[in-house]
Task: inverse folding
């Protein structure tokens, strides 16, 4: 698990690093730019997550194929090809939606200036959407073949590329125009395209990956695989949307409490997201390990992979949760100048939010590792409903209650985060125990055997 998860975790952190670098540079540029980027990204990532469903469906599909048969190049190739078809089909309508991001934000009551800036930022960023989704299709392919180093190297290069280009376009260095927030969007969109083409080149240059010839007969349809991509991918995409939009709804609520609250929320959420990349990487490895075991119909190995992933994720989050609780000011200081009196309100809010984030780290690790373990079993429908209920039947109404009835403002949003994650983690644990045979009829059958 750790051999596979290690490079995946670093890749996740590097991929997160592209956005984190933008947050750091925009925080140095101005808190208004940081706040506008937070609002814009809340809409961009909604579309990104919808497209990510078919993209991440590739990994469990290939893992099951390889678990059943040692070498099945046509089936593997068809899975990748149909996932890329799905991305090409879904991207245009999602991009059109994002071109109206500024109008949408203004329509839901966000400040006019922040909405306009966020809209311009997202319109440029949307041009990179097909490429970042395509990159994740290729990454799922390489991970399923237990070859995660290629995307790791590519993401390392992408981080350096994005940092250099963003630095030039945001602040006007190296002879480039000073574009601020718009420059960050341009740099990120170009970086998305760079990552896709670089990973595609790496696939063709790596013999183990090249042997499957994933672009061979690219225009040839495989309708059973195409349907499987959507049957598995759309519930996965909806699961991710339920979760992400629950957290993004908190960002939108923060917009009502002023620029300082939005900027502080973005800082705390970004720090939590960075920590989350580690259990997410472990969980991604669990999808492959569980999928291989499930394809071979080895349920004890399925259980071992899922439990191992959840324990590793929780141990890491206990450590980061303690760091958030003990050193919040030092962590906030990485994002914004703590010595500038103009930033004092942002810092005070961010410290509170980080300490609240420390409280949900444990549950966040548990829900993601078991959710992706279920994905390895091709169990996507039930996790989708678990996420929907946990975040939108329990968490979101709780946020409205805490914010508008009890007047807790931003603190109420973060309390609701904790509640939603607790319900989700508990439900995922029960579902995995049932599906893997720890409890229920399968467990009784194995006990009798």
Result:
């Amino acid at each position: 698990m750790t051999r596979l998860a290690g490079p995946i975790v670093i890749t996740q952190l590097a991929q997160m690093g592209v956005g984190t670098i933008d947050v750091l540079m925009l925080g140095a540029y101005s808190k208004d730019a940081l706040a506008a980027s937070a609002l814009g990204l809340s809409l961009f990532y909604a579309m990104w997550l919808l497209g990510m469903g078919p993209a991440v469906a590739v990994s469990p599909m290939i893992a099951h194929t390889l678990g059943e048969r040692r070498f099945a190049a046509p089936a593997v190739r068809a899975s990748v090809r149909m996932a890329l078809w799905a991305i090409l089909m879904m991207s245009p309508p999602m991009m059109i939606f994002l071109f109206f991001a500024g109008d949408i934000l203004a329509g839901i009551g966000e400040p006019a200036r922040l909405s306009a800036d966020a809209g311009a930022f997202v319109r440029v960023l949307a041009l990179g959407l097909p490429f970042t989704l395509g990159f994740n299709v290729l990454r799922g392919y390489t991970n399923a073949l237990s070859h995660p180093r290629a995307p790791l190297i590519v993401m390392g290069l992408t981080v350096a590329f994005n940092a250099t280009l963003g630095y030039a376009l945001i602040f006007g260095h190296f002879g480039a125009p000073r574009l601020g927030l718009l420059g960050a969007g341009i740099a990120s969109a170009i970086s998305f395209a760079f990552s896709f083409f670089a990973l595609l080149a790496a696939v063709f240059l790596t013999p183990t990956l090249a042997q499957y010839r994933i672009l061979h007969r690219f225009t040839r349809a495989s309708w059973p695989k195409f349907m499987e991509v959507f049957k598995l991918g759309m519930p996965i995409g909806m699961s991710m949307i339920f979760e992400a939009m629950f957290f993004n709804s908190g960002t939108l609520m923060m917009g009502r409490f002023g620029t300082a609250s939005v900027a502080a929320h973005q800082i705390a959420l970004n720090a939590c997201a960075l920590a989350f990349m580690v259990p997410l990487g472990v969980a991604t490895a669990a999808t492959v390990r569980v999928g291989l075991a499930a394809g071979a119909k080895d349920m004890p190995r399925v259980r071992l992979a899922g439990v191992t992933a959840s324990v590793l994720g929780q141990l890491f989050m206990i450590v980061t949760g303690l760091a958030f609780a003990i050193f919040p000011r030092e962590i906030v200081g990485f994002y914004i100048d703590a010595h500038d009196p103009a930033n004092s309100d942002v810092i005070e809010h961010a410290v509170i939010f980080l300490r609240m984030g420390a409280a949900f780290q444990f549950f966040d690790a548990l829900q993601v590792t078991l959710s992706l373990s279920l994905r390895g079993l091709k169990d996507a429908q039930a996790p989708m409903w678990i996420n929907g209920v946990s975040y939108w039947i329990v968490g979101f109404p709780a946020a409205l209650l805490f914010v508008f009835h009890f007047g807790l403002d931003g603190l109420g949003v973060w309390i609701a985060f904790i509640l939603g994650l607790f319900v989700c983690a508990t439900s995922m644990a029960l579902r995995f125990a049932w599906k893997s045979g720890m409890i229920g009829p399968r467990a009784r059958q194995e006990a009798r055997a």
The CA atoms of residues 324 and 443 lie 39 Å apart.
